[in-house]
Amino acid sequence: VDELFTKQDILSIDKKLGEISLIYSEEVINVPGIFAVFASELALRNISIRDGVICGGEHILIVKDDELMVALDAIYQIAKWGEKN
Fold first, then answer.
1. What are phi and psi of 29, to 5 degrees?
2. pLDDT digit string (tens) for 4-52?
3. Nearest CA among 25, 3, 20, 36 for reference residue 68
4. Are 62 and 52 a contacting pair, CB within 8 Å?
5. Distances (CA, A) of 55 to 9, 30, 60, 72, 82
6. In which band, very low, low, confident or very high, does the pLDDT at 84 lie, cut at 50, 70 and 90?
7. What is the pLDDT of residue 85?
8. Can you tell me the distance from the alpha carbon of 38 to that of 32, in angstroms, rounded to the nearest whole number?
9. Which is higher by pLDDT, 64 or 3?
């Protein structure tokens, strides 16, 4: 992709990134603060969201690839919050 742009147009390149795509059910879409929950849990694990997209019932989070598994575990733990014991 970097060949499509001039060097003056490229501010930086970060190649070691991972993507997490979260697709929500209808009942979760209407929960206020759902993105804040994910952002806070990742921050508690010292993971920075490098970039993200929020569109309707989907969130796309970009994190460093070496933090991807920790981020996925955090999201998995959040998903278990609503389970009955």
1. -55, -35
2. 999 898 888 888 999 999 998 888 888 888 889 999 999 999 999 999 9
3. 20
4. yes
5. 27, 13, 9, 20, 23
6. low
7. 59
8. 12
9. 64
Please tell me the number of Cα atoms within 13 Å of 62 on its side-chain side: 9
Could you list the beta-strand ranges (E) of 3-57: 17-23, 51-55
If one counts every other C-beta atom within 10 angstroms of the C-beta of residue 35, the result is 15
Selection from 71, 58, 51 nearest residue 21 by Cα: 58
Type of residue found at 27: E
Provide the 3-class DSSP secondary structure of residue 57.
Answer: coil
Tokens matching residue 28: 């979760």
Nearest to 49 by CA among 76, 37, 28, 84: 37
